[in-house]
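Methods — Computational structure assignment.
A single polypeptide chain was analysed. Its primary sequence is given first, followed by the predicted tertiary structure written as structure tokens.
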Amino acid sequence: MNLDRLAAKTAQTITEKFLSTSDNAEEEKKVKELENAATKALGVLHENGVYATMLYLFAKQKDKAFSKIIREELLKLLKADEIHQMGLQISEDILDDWLEVGKHLTEKVCQKLDHLLLIKQLWEQTLIYTRFCAKAKGEPDELESA
């Protein structure tokens, strides 16, 4: 399985979706917001795990546009062909329902340690790539100081 490719493609999708809603004047602000959002979600993932990350992204949905985009794309990773053989697929119609997503995570993803660790690693790589995609969209000066 080439999970690195999958993480990279998902990070590109998150970046494109997030920045497509802005014009050039506000793009710099959006780039910083995306970078911060990915960093915060990554921190929750590192400290508390897969379930807590998704709970955090659902809790932030009311006041932050980034959370829905990141949340949906991370969940869509469970439907990827590379993950399909593990039986972790999630139905498209429950992506906005925390109770159903939480139930899916506990019953499917968190049930086996190897599945949980794989998804955690995949989400970490995706969020890291998202941070750097945002940085790459930013000013060239910012890249040099990073």
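Note: The mean pLDDT is 87.
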